[in-house]
Amino acid sequence: MTEVHETHWNRRDFPEAARDLLQNSQTRKNVQNATGIIQAKRNNVVAELPDWQDLREAGAQIRAHTLRHLDHYLMQFEENCTRAGGHVHWASDAEDARRIILDLVRQQQAEEVVKIKTMTSEEIGLNAHLEAHGIQPIETDLAELIIQLGKDRPSHFVVPALHVNRAQIRELFQREMHLPDIGDRPEDLTDAARTYLREKYLRIKVAISGGNFLIADTGGMCIVESEGNGRMCLTLPDVLISIVGIEKVVPSYRDLEVFLQTLPRSATGERMNPYNSTWCGVHPGDGPKEFHVVLLDNGRSPILADKEARQTLQCIRCAACLNVCPVYHQTGGHAYESVYAGPIGAILTPQLNSMKEGRSLPYASSLCGACYEVCPVKINIPEVLIHLRGKVVQQDQATLAGKFSLWNIGMQAAAFLFADSSRLALAERIGQVGQKPLVSKNGFIEWMPLMLSGWTQTRDLRAMPAQSFRQWWATERASQPNGKQPNAG
Amino acid sequence: MPDNSNARSRILASIRMSLGGSSTPEAIAADYASIPRPYTRSSVADQGALLDLFIDRLLEYDAGFYRCNRGGIATLVADILTLRDKRRLAIPSGIPADWLPEGFEFAVADTWRNDQLDKIEGTLSACAVAIAETGTIVVQNVPGQGPRALSLVPDYFLCVVFAEQIVATVPEAFDRIEATSALPTTFISGPSATADIEMTRIKGVHGPRFLDVILVV
After folding, report:
1. Nearest to residue A303, comparing CAs of A375, A215, A371, A391?
2. I need a labelling partner for A34 at 20 to 30 A (CA). Which of A105, A176, B9, B74 fits?
């Protein structure tokens, strides 16, 4: 059952998926152009806040505190949301969530639902599930609409259609909205989307959203957006169903004073995005008559047990780490074969899947640390990447095939050599001679045989110098009369 | 609803197992209180500089900006509506009568259906608080501001902001709205916009495409 809905994420290994995407120069150009623009804007608006580091620290501590007491805050949210007239549902996994939502939509006898962009919905394969049961989901976020009309996949979780440029969008709208004469100015495209969706907002009775924050002390919710499509969906229909990961709760309404500063500046490089909405349950005469929140676990609660990796769940989905990542710049989001792309996706996806899928993702990084630097809740992504690489290796070593794989034997051999100076010296001398047939004219080794080939698959190796540091040190010291330290200058 | 309570207890048990137990509410409250918050609460001291900053931000978002004194609201509303070529606006209940000029139609729209709102030319509203640093207007469901659909469905939003409602920072705005945080609340920063096409902010998607602000000093 589960497989049916998630097949459009193929879960190929990162290097394999990346190789295909690197061939697509148009996509790469689009991604580099868009991330370049957003990064410059982000840096400007972050630089103008003298207390940026204080906001990051406070945000990190609020999120870490919440995760340490997640059971408490979820129950508090449930109690307060229920008191305010909302209904709280709990979903252990994607199947639970899909069933709960389908039942709610069927109770309304709705044939169509309007949707606000939600990655959680993508995570549980909701659209395919609704379609399979005769219900048409209509994406209202411009980028999600572009993805839906183009039968594409999101490549970025703030701007899912970041990999598509305006000419491509125009072509899509001409075809799918039957607008042969539409122009290619961005305004023409937004006008088309406005007209296309407005009658749907006014007519359709059920909306589905994600949520940026659940607020424990008021039982409320917060949705951060730009276009007003979110406000349309959460205000006009009779019924609103919000699917939200259990980690998205914050203790107090006051905590938004931190995140409503750090999130917009990090996500779209704006001082404030056009619209933020907060509300509690149901308010007579204003908005939906029924409000449902589906709290989704789907692999999140076990992550809390790993004290080093738990910080992954602090994420507020700003995507600043994607925009700054040199790997993401080259491949775009699809190479990650995951709902959550980029550095945060590389640590979140394998953990959500109990380290059974997305195992190549922790390696999809140069560990440069730029992602940690920009993270508004200070998730130390490089640290978690290394930690997860360790877990992948331990998993492999626990299997017979893994234990006797060439890679593991090679690594064990390397560990043995590096553990003792005389063994290392011997290996260096063998290497200096043995490398000769492999060194290219440019001084690099571009290919290595057998089990070593994995190392050179994605990187060149500088040839070993004629003299190792150890050899140089030994000769230098011998030439100094009083055993003085040589000056390496 | 099928076995919802089972999922609830399973999830809570899994969280507790991962965390190695739960703390008492008192211990959690103490832990929460110890989170350091040295970030800026208020920044601009001078009222004139504050207003200038707010105006700058509005203009940057491509919102319209006008200024008048307390007695001049109705006259200015008339001028702006003439300029915008609007005759008929929705208002929430609780808008003072002396804001409304002769010669235009203002309809109290708190209980209107969505399709009625879709047909009106715009909305005139008050606000709860405004934030200078971010050019943000906050509206809540109270008299003078009304249900959220009023500031959303019509294509034009005209908002009256009093100078004493403007604060410098986001945390200061939260100081003012915390007591009414249960109400439907919307933070509006400029006309509706999107950055979804090549990461460039383009004005005018689903919310009001035109926003004017009257600052009353």
Report:
1. A391
2. A176
One-letter amino acid of A443: G
In a domain, A137, yes or no: yes
Give a yes or no: residue A360 inside a domain. no
Count of CB contacts below 8 A, A vs B?
Answer: 256
Q: Confirm or reject contact between B121 and chain A (CB < 8 A).
A: no
- Per-residue pLDDT averaged across A30-39, rounded? 91
Looking at the 3D structure of chain A, how many domains does it have?
2
Dihedral sign of CA atoms A23, A28, A30, A33 in order: negative
Give the pairing of strands A444-445 and A461-462.
Answer: antiparallel
Task: Kindly report the CATH number that applies to the domain delimited by B47-216.
Answer: 3.40.50.10420
- For chain A positions 97-116, those within 8 Å of chain B (CB to CB) are 99-100, 103
Residues of chain B with C-beta less than 8 angstroms from the C-beta of A324 = none
Name the packing angle between helices A52-68 and A256-267 (round to 10°). 120
Task: Return the number of other C-beta atoms located less than 10 Å from residue B5's C-beta.
Answer: 9
Query: Is A309 inside a domain boundary?
Result: no
Average pLDDT in the A148-162 region?
A: 88
E strand map for B14-164: 64-68, 88-91, 105-108, 123-126, 129-131, 136-140, 156-162
Over 90: is that where the pLDDT of A82 sits?
yes
- Which of A270, A286, A301 represents a domain boundary (last residue)? A301
What is the distance in angstroms between the Cα of B71 and the nearest Cα belonging to chain A?
Answer: 31
> Do B141 and B147 form a contact (C-beta atoms < 8 A)?
yes
Q: Which chain A residue has the Cα nearest residue B30? A: A65
Which of A163, A451, A94, A465 minimizes the C-alpha distance to A329? A163
Residues B154-159 have a mean pLDDT of: 97
Q: What is the pLDDT of residue A10?
A: 61
Q: How far apart are CA A279 and CA A185, in angstroms?
A: 36
Which residue ranges make up each domain of chain B?
Answer: 4-33, 47-216
Which of B149, B193, B199 minimises the CB distance to A236? B149
Residue of A nearest to B182 (CA): A280
Interface touch A286/B38, C-beta < 8 Å = no
Confirm whether A274 is domain-assigned.
yes
Nearest-angstrom CA–CA distance, A237 and B148? 13
Considering only CA atoms, give the Rg of chain A: 26
pLDDT in tens, A209-226: 999 999 999 999 999 999
- In sequence order, the 6+-apart residues with CB closer than 8 A to the CB of A309 are A303, A347, A351, A384, A387, A388
Question: Angle, to 10 degrees, between the axis of helix A342-352 and the axis of helix A381-397?
Answer: 40
**Residue B71, SS3?**
helix
Are residues B188 and B151 in contact, defined by beta-carbon separation less than 8 angstroms?
yes
DSSP 8-state class, residue B129: E
Q: Which residue segment(s) compose the domain that A215 sits in? A: 2-164+205-301
Which among A190, A253, A258 is the nearest to B204, CB-wise?
A190
Do B2 and A302 make contact, defined as CB atoms within 8 angstroms? no
pTM: 0.91
At which of A301, A333, A355 does a domain end? A301
- Same domain, yes or no: A10 and A149: yes
Q: Quote the tokens at residue A366.
A: 């140069």
Interface test with B, best of A95, A226, A244 (most B CBs within 10 A): A226
Residues of A in contact with B134 (CB under 8 A): 271-272
Is A33's Cβ below 8 Å from some Cβ in B? yes
